[in-house]
Design brief:
heterodimer, A: mainly alpha, Helix Hairpins, elongated, B: two-stranded antiparallel ribbon, 71% helix
């Protein structure tokens, strides 16, 4: 029998993976992937809660997040491409013009 | 009738604002003409009001709007035209109008022509607020307003450098302006305290309310009110010991001296005492004290005028001395006499100053009367008008001063204050002497100006025309004595003389005698070439010439210790304590920022790491301290 806990553990594992990705990866594109994983981890949790409590709000929220993530990626990728065209690489350590 | 009240009050304000629009522009003749025309309108409506009030005995009142309404305190912007204020209004607007016209000529070559008219009209507006207000608060606003305009106008030539006291007794226009302002602030503190006492006990500042309730209070409270209000009057009217600013105020342009420091503003103190007669008539001891101070100043100032060599300073001391006369009359309860002398004095003293302005104009701003002489030949009209003014000042029949000044001496004698009378009598002799010493040295005798290379010329016709009405009034104003008395005593208390006719005639004879002998002495001595040089070595001469060393004394006693105290406060207190504390706090913040600026590396993954660390800390906190368990 698969219970709510299984889903939540899955979500937590996915979130941890994405967190490690965010912390460790130096490639900006990989960073985007990691963020997407984090968002989807949250989506799984929301959908699971929704099913468990018989409340559609959670699923609704998951849809919202998918839509927003899509638009965010669209904008983010656009910026990334421009950055790549300008500098020829997308390494995070070279992105330090805001150094204080 | 309210309409005329507003026109009188606001026409000068419009003139001032109009002139101010051209303040920074080069000279525009029409600015002066427009300002003078508006003053003329103001004067005409003041006369209409005077005629109306005199013929119907109705007091015209107008309330512009509520100004301060807090709790039980209610101060409206109210104005009143009663016999006292209409007399003041007509005097002020008349003299101001003539001075405006005169200034078009006098300030002809000045860069600040437009600015000058703006200030001058603003002064008239403030003065009208002062005399027309129906409450003490409005009076105080006007009081401060004229102080401000006086400051602006004394320091009109602010660019002149500071000189030492030996070269120029007033140091510089800017210095003199500040001195006048500070002296007046000292006195205004006294006046404010007086107003607070009045409000504290009576709960209102409206004249009608205050004056109808004042006799309900204990005599000590009324005495306090009287004393503090008079301290304010002492500053504005330059009574001893706050008198030094008036002579230094002569650094301003001469029309300013005529209007502000002779005819109008300095008489505000007398006006205040006259206006507050219900307070002062309750406390005759304070009145006597005022009269004594006035008599002292009358002689004290006249004595300084005896030896001074500066044309304008002599007239300034004479103003001081005449203000002393007015305070004697007001202090002894003859309020209408004080007001009458105020009015006649405004006419002949303004005339005297404008004449002095003509002389200065002719002599390229030279003020030393020992460099003049024999100017009668080139300046007949000016000379004639200044002689008229001096005769009026000396109190010779039938000129205006005879009627008003002799009345004051009669009052002093009649109320059995023979010492005061004697002082005023001596003062009258000195007045006659120094006035004609000035006339003789400037207009007659040897033509010393030729030695110094001056080419004097008569003033243009319109400047003389502006002086002519004043000359006329200096001659005839005295004959209106009885109608004036009748008019103002509808508001002010009458003064009853107890003297026999013969005593009165004897007194007039005595006063005329000393005035004539003063004139005679001056004419005789100075037509023979004046006093010998060795008088200048005389200690009394030196004492008088240096103004009793009072400016030096004030400098030593107040200015220098204050300066040293300020130095200590600056170096020890401000720099070491206040500044150091503030700098210390700023230093800490600066150092912290410098240390922690490495955090701002600009590296995204480092920032994300910090973010995650923050997130974890928050999570831990939520787990540990979550309210929902």
């Amino acid at each position: 029998m698969i219970t709510l806990n299984h889903y939540l553990v899955l979500a937590a594992i996915l979130f941890s993976i994405s967190l490690v990705g965010i912390l460790r990866r130096k490639n900006l594109l990989m960073l985007f992937f990691a963020t997407e994983i984090a968002l989807n981890a949250v989506n799984i949790a929301l959908a699971a809660f929704s099913k468990f409590y018989h409340d559609l709000t959670g699923q609704l929220f998951a849809f919202f997040i998918i839509a927003i993530a899509a638009s965010e990626v669209a904008v983010g990728l656009g910026l990334l491409i421009i950055w790549y065209k300008r500098t020829g690489n997308i390494d995070l350590d070279t992105l330090q013009s805001m150094n204080g | 009738m309210e309409k005329y009240l507003y026109i009188t009050l606001f026409a000068p304000l419009v003139g001032s604002l109009f002139a101010a629009m051209f303040g920074m522009k080069p000279k525009k003749l029409f600015v002066g003409i427009v300002a003078s025309l508006l003053l003329f309108i103001s004067f005409i409506s003041a006369v209409i009001l005077l005629v109306h009030v005199a013929s119907t005995d109705e007091v015209v009142k107008a309330q512009l709007f509520d100004w301060i309404t807090v709790g039980s305190l209610n101060i409206p912007f109210g104005f009143v035209a009663d016999p006292v204020s209409t007399v003041m209004m007509v005097t002020v607007t008349l003299v101001s109008m003539l001075v405006h016209i005169y200034s078009i000529g006098y300030m002809e070559h000045d860069e600040g022509f437009n600015r000058f008219f703006s200030y001058l009209s603003a002064f008239v507006f403030s003065m009208l607020v002062l005399v027309m207000s129906d409450n003490f608060a409005g009076l105080f606003i006007g009081w401060e307003g004229v102080g401000l305009c006086s400051w602006l106008l004394i320091g009109f030539w602010y660019h002149k450098p500071d000189l030492s006291r030996d070269q120029n007794p007033s140091i510089s226009p800017a210095w003199a302006a500040n001195e006048a302002f500070i002296m007046n602030r000292i006195a205004d503190l006294g006046m404010l305290i007086g107003l607070f006492i009045i409000y504290w006990h009576i709960g209102s500042l409206q004249y009608d309310v205050v004056f109808s309730h004042v006799n309900l209070f204990d005599i000590s409270i009324i005495t306090m009110m009287g004393i503090f209000l008079f301290i304010g009057a002492m500053g504005k009217s330059a009574q001893f010991p706050l008198h030094t600013w008036l002579a230094d105020a002569m650094e301003g342009p001469t029309p300013v001296s005529a209007l502000i420091h002779a005819a109008t503003m300095v008489t505000a103190g007398v006006y205040l005492v006259v206006r507050s007669f219900p307070i002062y008539s309750q406390i005759p001891e304070i009145g006597l004290w005022i009269a004594t101070l006035g008599a002292f100043v009358a002689v004290f100032a006249a004595s300084m005028a005896l030896v001074n060599t500066d044309l304008k300073r002599i007239i300034a001391y004479s103003t001081l001395s005449q203000l002393g006369y007015m305070f004697v009359a007001a202090g002894l309860g003859a309020y209408w006499v004080a007001l009458f002398h105020l009015m006649t004095h405004a006419f002949f003293k303004a005339l005297l100053f404008l004449g002095a302005g003509n002389v200065m104009h002719a002599m390229d701003d030279e003020l030393n009367i020992f460099k003049m002489g024999g100017l009668y030949k080139v300046m007949k009209w000016t000379a004639a008008m200044m002689i008229i003014a001096s005769l009026a000042l000396a109190g010779i029949y039938p000129f205006a001063g005879f009627f008003s000044k002799d009345k004051i001496l009669e009052v002093a004698f009649d109320s059995h204050h023979y010492i005061l009378w004697f002082m005023l009598w001596v003062g009258a002799g000195m007045t006659a002497f120094y006035s004609f010493r000035l006339i003789m040295l400037v207009f007659f005798g040897e033509e010393r100006y030729k030695k110094y290379g001056f080419h004097p010329h008569e003033a243009p016709w319109y400047m003389l025309a502006a002086m002519a009405p004043l000359a006329l009034l200096a001659i005839v104003a005295g004959f209106f004595e009885h109608s004036f008395e009748e008019f103002v005593t509808t508001l002010l208390p009458e003064y009853h003389f107890h003297m026999e006719g013969i005593t009165k005639v004897a007194l007039i004879g005595l006063t005329t005698l000393i005035a004539l002998s003063g004139i005679g002495l001056a004419v005789y001595k100075y037509s023979k070439g004046g006093f010998s040089e060795k008088w200048k070595e005389n200690p009394i001469y030196k004492l008088l010439y240096n103004q009793y060393y009072i400016p030096q004394l004030y400098d030593k006693l107040f200015a220098q210790p204050y300066r040293e105290l300020s130095q200590i406060a600056w170096k020890e207190l401000d720099l070491r304590l206040v500044d150091a504390t503030v700098d210390f706090i700023a230093g800490i913040i600066y150092a912290t920022g410098f240390k922690s600026r490495v955090v701002q590396s600009g590296n995204l993954s480092k920032m994300l790491r910090w973010m995650v660390i923050g997130l974890l800390i928050l999570l831990v906190l939520v787990v540990l301290y979550s309210p929902v368990r």
